[in-house]
Specification:
The protein has 441 residues and is of the alpha+beta class. It is built from 15 helices and 5 strands. Helix 4 runs antiparallel to helix 5, helix 5 (128-148) packs antiparallel against helix 7 and helix 7 (161-172) packs antiparallel against helix 8 (178-199). It is elongated.
Length: 441
């Protein structure tokens, strides 16, 4: 089962480069037009919507509320640092050369104060250059502490400042991509393992302490990365659901967000052309290049009018969702989804969300959920003058039937009477949705 191609955006004007397929999700659209939007903003007035949006996007600040988790992680880091300093001072006389570990702790405090001041001044955003500098400082802290305790040959019971470096990565996990923080954690763990093998005799007496030390260094930042990533995924998915839910009340045929951006681009191009004619910079009759641009604008506007009569709320709900766009395929050649009432739309959308879940297709390129609407009047359900039966077939490959909770079946009941079957590991749901032939929406 394949998605019915409905390209409504991505057609460029002459001189704008080769034509590319239309973006299927918001994420793809953002990546594709990021460079173009920045270049266009340079030529827009400072009070325009495009320039103002780009300025707002460039403002510092942690996304999706992850900064609150970073604040809690910073508190944990401070508590661990205080405990480490107290332990170090209490065992001052046990060190052959305590000044190197003391220098490591001084560098740790200075670095922590500098990062806190930078976050308070510039917002909860850490650049790649700043993160690299922090990693160099943390590496110096580890080196100073290791050199200071080398003669004791017991890293598990004498390392203090170097162990605090692992906790220093906790708040950074909320400010940098997970792969960078994981790389720093792996490097720190390798440094501790290598130093333990070189400096400490591995015996039955020292091995438990070494394992505990390595766990205290690696496990807390790893858990922080996992928690923050799951939190971001949760918030992004809920925001995605809220955005997609707005399509439930859309008219039978509507223009989606991606097409709205394209229409805004066409509007700007038309405005520039008309302004050039009005101020005399491009006098009438139009030059060949300007006439070609005007013809292209008119053609694209007509295409949008035609395509706008084939795109339903379900098409926009799928393509405008980062989550559903990668997991759901829709086949609705007759645009029957536009006839569904709001309650039926909400039920169908909620059921699809439940079936998608976190499932992944076993075969690359195969959707997790496939939705097919129509044809009408089949399976003994005739079409009347006022109503018609729209068969809705949902196939789920990602989530087994036993994992679907009551919310999924309740949502399907709002769509209409349904039958469930399993064939070759694929869940098949066939619902018969009775709709009005002339919807008021």
């Amino acid at each position: 089962m394949t998605r019915v191609p409905e390209h409504t955006v991505g057609r460029g004007l002459p001189g704008e480069g080769a034509t590319r397929p239309a973006p299927r999700t918001r994420r793809e659209a953002r990546e594709r037009y990021r460079g173009t939007e920045r270049r266009q903003a340079r030529g827009l007035p400072s009070t325009s919507t495009g320039a103002r949006s780009l300025r707002q996007a460039a403002l510092p600040g942690a996304s999706l509320g992850a900064g609150h988790l970073g604040l809690g992680a910073a508190v944990l880091t401070a508590v661990e640092a205080v405990i480490g300093i107290v332990v170090f001072v209490a065992h001052w006389n046990d060190y052959a050369d305590p000044w190197l570990p003391a220098a490591a702790w001084g560098l740790f405090v200075i670095a922590a104060a500098g990062v806190a001041a930078a976050v308070l001044t510039y917002g909860e955003r850490l650049t790649g250059l700043a993160f690299g500098l922090i990693c160099v400082v943390l590496g110096c802290i580890v080196a100073l502490d290791f050199i200071g305790i080398w003669s004791l040959h017991d890293v598990a019971h004498t390392a203090t400042a170097s162990m605090a470096v692992g906790y220093a990565l906790l708040p950074i996990a909320a400010l940098r991509p997970a792969r960078e923080v994981v790389a720093a954690i792996v490097a720190l763990g390798i440094a501790f393992v290598g130093y333990a093998l070189l400096s400490t005799p591995i015996t039955t007496d020292t091995l438990p302490g070494l394992v505990t030390m390595l766990s205290l260094v690696v496990v807390p930042p790893s858990l922080a990365v996992f928690v923050i990533q799951r939190f971001r995924q949760l918030v992004q998915r809920e925001l995605d659901r809220v955005l997609v839910q707005s399509n439930v009340g859309a008219p039978q045929f509507a223009v989606g967000m991606l097409a709205s951006d394209e229409l805004a681009r066409l509007d700007l191009a038309a405005e520039k052309l008309l302004d050039a004619v009005a101020n005399g910079s491009d006098p009438l009759p139009l030059s060949d290049a300007s006439a070609s641009v005007a013809a292209s604008l008119a053609t694209e506007l007509r295409l949008h009018l035609i395509e706008g009569r084939r795109e339903t709320w379900l098409y926009h709900a799928i393509t405008e969702s980062d989550h559903l766009g990668r997991s759901v395929a829709v086949a609705d050649p007759s645009a029957l989804a536009g006839h569904l009432a709001p309650a039926q739309r909400d039920g169908l959308l909620q059921a699809v969300w439940q079936m998608v879940g976190d499932g992944r297709s076993q075969q690359a390129g195969l959707p997790v959920v496939s939705v097919t609407l129509g044809p009408v009047g089949t399976d003994g359900h005739p079409v009347t003058d006022e109503t018609m039966d729209v068969p809705v077939v949902i196939e789920s490959r990602g989530v087994p039937r036993r994992r679907l909770g009551p919310a999924a079946w309740t949502a399907l009941q709002r769509v209409g009477p349904y039958a469930v079957s399993m064939r070759e590991g694929v869940l098949h749901v066939t619902a018969h949705c009775v709709v009005d032939r002339h919807p008021s929406m």
